[in-house]
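Hi U.,

Before I forget, here's the chain from the pilot set. I'm dumping it here mostly so it's searchable later in email.
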Amino acid sequence: MSDAESATKRLSEATATLETDLTPDPSVGIRELRNHLSRYLEQVKAGSTVTVTDHGRIIATIVPMRYSRHMLELAAQGKVRLPTRPPLRAADIPKIEVEGGLSDLLHEARG
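Structure:
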């Protein structure tokens, strides 16, 4: 596998887990989680987040891995830093109306 193919594979692994599911997160009590742990872990593997409650009070959240093994190894080696904030959703980024094309905008920005 070439370096480019390897990099593309690592990038797709890392970004695949960043996509969010818009369905509500399941909430489960401790007893239910203990009795059906495999079922809930399968949901997490599929990308869902499971909220754990104790008598209706949220005490934990089980989330899927957000980074590839390679990215975690790089972080452990101190070569990269993992983000401390959750990623922005596309819907949260404000839209900017621009007259003309991208080249006009770049020309204006460069002065």
